[in-house]
Every structure is written in structure tokens, then in C-alpha cells.
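Researcher: I'd like a structural prediction for the single chain below. Treat it as a standalone chain; there are no partners to consider.
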Amino acid sequence: MSTTTKPVNQKAWWLILPVIICVAFSAILPLMTVVNYSVQDIISPERRVFVGTEWFTSVMRDPDLHAALGRQLTFSLAVLAVEIPLGILLALSMPAQGWKSSAVLVVVALSLLIPWNVVGTIWQIYGRADIGLAGNLLQKMGVDYSYTGNATHAWITVLVMDVWHWTPLVALLCFAGLRSIPDAYYQAARIDGASKFAVFRYIQLPKMRGVLMIAVLLRFMDSFMIYTEPFVLTGGGPGNATTFLSQFLTQKAVGQFDLGPAAAFSLIYFLIILLLCFILYNWMQRIGTSSTEGAGHA
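Model: Treating it as a single chain, here is the predicted structure.
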């Protein structure tokens, strides 16, 4: 008995051609240009000298890069330590249904609609001791607050600004995860007489694992690439207190016009983000697997 193979229509691939073209112009071609610059010493538009991995070596040995990387890691870990628990708590306290739920969702999401440069300007005014609400209030309380003159105050202000801006994203993701839990789980917990903490520990938290993983990865990547808000608020100061990796890169590329070292550092920056996200993702996967097994044994 003979069998005939139905021909497969491959014309549907043409539908993704615009996407491929957009990605090529927005990502692939710039990346190729950066790779090209990273192995050259650009003396002038007409003169370029191939230097191999010289820029990578010099950048990796730069103490300013090490300091900026330390500040960046500290800031990103602080962001996760504050925003993830706060977002979960906010999602748990939000109404589950009805008009109140819709109203709260709109109010919570308002800060996400504000552009990054406007957020920096808002907090720049908000923290001023003469006209800013927070700065003036702290001065009246006896706190000599100055985000432009005190490194600790500047760092805390940038952290609080980021928490205010992006915690709603974590809360909305967690809220969506909570709403996807069937009522049967809560009914079984009530029958068993489980406490609120037990319900959170063995029902809500495991069911939110997927959205929490997305929230952690998004917030880690965004915070690790933060630029506009601290640039507008503090300009990277006082000193280098809020000079994170993205500002360090901008100073090299735009301020000093060292295109070769800047290109090499941008590739290193990219690889650092990929590596840390990979480690973080696998770590969260292991925690999720162990928590699921623990819940099953319980």
C-alpha cells in the first residue's frame, strides 16, 4: 500500500519577515557594529587599528568598573529584597473581585505609566529641602537630608524611587497568579482548618512560582540596566555613589569618546546580565522544585 506525503505550505514564514527585518536593524546589526569596534582602536573615521582583545583586558582590570559593578549588584539585590515581598503583600491585600478590585488595579498601575525621565524629575523635586514635600519634611524632623550632597541619602533615594516606580509591576503579576488559583484549593484548606500562613505557604506561594520567576527576572534585568532615573536625579553623584554600570558605559562612550573600550565593556555588560539571569533562573527553579516536593510531603 503506497502512502502519499502531503506537501507542507511554508509560505507562512513570510509573515514573520517584518519581525526578522526589525530585529536585524534594532539588534543584530548594532551588535555586529559593537563587536567590530571592540577589537579596533579608532584613531579617526579613516584610521582604525586592529588590537584584538586589548580593550577587553584593559576594561576588566579597570578598578572603576569593579566599583560600579559592586554598586550595581548591591542595588539590584536590594531592589529584589524590597520589591518582591512588598509586591506579594500588596497583591494579597488587594480586593479579589468587584468594582473595588478594578479601581485598585488602576490606582496601583498609575506609576507604571510615568516615563523614566519624568520619574527622576518628580523625585528630584520631591526630595528638595526647600520646596520638596519629602525633603522639607525630613528637614523639619531634624534630618539633614540631601540627596545631592550625601552619598547614603542619594543611594537610598534612588532605591526608594525605584521601589515606588516598579513595585506595582510585581504586585500586578502576583495578583494575576493569585486569581488563577481555583477556589477548590481554598475550600479544602478551610475544611482542614489551615491557617492563613499555611494557605500562603502551601497554596498561594507555590502557585505563584511562575509569575514570581517572571517578576524576579524582569526586575533584576531592569534594575541592572537602570540609567535614566539616577542620571536625572543625581547625575551619578555625589561623587560616584550612584554611578551604576550603564552610566559608567555612557561616560566612556559619550563623555570620553573611547569607542573601543566602551564597545568591549558593553559586550562584557551584556554577558554579565545573561550569566546572572541564568544563575538566578536556575536557582529559582531549584527552590520551586524543592518547595513543591515539600508541599507534596506535607
